[in-house]
Amino acid sequence: MRIVEQIATAEPESESEPESVPAPAPGAEQYPALDFANSVIALPGGRVLDLLDRPQAATRWLAERGLAPADAGLQEVCAGRMRSLREEVRTLLAAQVAGQPAPSGALAAVNTALTRVPTAALLHWDPARGLHRVAPHPTDQIVDHALAALASGAADLLTGPDAERLAACGSAPCNRYLLRAGRRHWCSVRCGDRARAARAYARRTGATAD
After folding, report:
1. 88-99: per-residue pLDDT in tens?
2. What is the value of pTM for the model shown?
């Protein structure tokens, strides 16, 4: 909390200033599951920007990533399921970054999302066509398919070669994750500038106190 206060003092922001969505963190375009985990953003002053906070916003987020049609019309229960899985994915990312065991509850949630969607064409029968197979279509169970795709992406990230590059943004209060490239530990230029401003402020106030 002290760091947040220092940053707020070094970089005052207007309460009326509209929040803009930051550019995707490094690695988020390669791994939509990382972008999914970063869809809730902690901001200075204790504010939070949640890109899935309403059904319309959740629909837009899925549509922009090709995971649902723009007219899907998600309801709050669906948006709530997305937010719930997001927290479980964030829990797994946090454990990976900290080098800790993966929590069993988060593993179970991701595995449930993975197994809710059939991967093969199912066998059906009707009088007109008799026995036939039908491949499941995303519009049949939009959220199930979207969450399965995101859960699969999270599993790929956490078990693949890029897992060791996973890092948390080093600029408080940012809560986003990224894939490190070299020594970079910031998810955006803005976070890098904020961290540098906080360090400069700490040096100035430390010198004054001395």
Report:
1. 999 999 999 999
2. 0.78
